[in-house]
Amino acid sequence: MDALRRNANVCFEVDEALSDASMFKSVIVSDKAEIISDRERMIPYLQRLIDKYRVPEEFEAYMSKPGRNREKELEAVKICLITPDKIASKKWTMKG
């Protein structure tokens, strides 16, 4: 996080390939990262992660489960928002 505070320029890549390397595709996004430190502003982004990687349920219900500590966990989480300025993509498929 210290590095992002000093220089917010970022590049983020997502790629996918078949295990036999017969096809791949990738997307590279460049712009500046914004570190979101306001806890209430973090919640919609955390909700999306809960919906994707857990059984979908409301953030407050998820955080009220036994063993969860809402304030401590929100303090530990860092959300970086990248709004793309430049997007580049590639796709390659083996012919044959």
What would you say this structure looks like, in words?
This protein has one domain (2-91). It is flat. Strands 1, 2, 3 and 4 form a 4-stranded antiparallel sheet that branches. The protein is 33% helix and 36% strand. It has 4 helices and 4 strands.
Topology:
Layout: H1 2-6, E1 9-17, E2 23-36, H2 39-53, H3 59-63, H4 70-76, E3 79-82, E4 86-93
Antiparallel strand pairs: 1-2, 2-3, 2-4
* Secondary-structure content class: alpha+beta
How confident is the prediction overall: mean pLDDT? 90
Low-confidence stretches: none
Assembly of the depicted chains: single chain
Strand percentage lies at 35-45%
**Structural Rg:** 18 Å
Tell me the distance between the termini: 46 Å
Our count of domains comes out at 1
The number of helical elements comes to 4
The amount of helix comes to 25-40%
| SSE string | HEEHHHEE
Global shape? flat
Number of E-state strands: 4
Question: Major beta sheet, specifics?
Answer: 4 strands, antiparallel
Summed up, what is this model?
With 96 residues, this protein is of the alpha+beta class. Helices cover 33% and strands 36% of the residues.
Descriptive terms for the model:
96 residues; alpha+beta; four-stranded antiparallel β-sheet; 4 strands
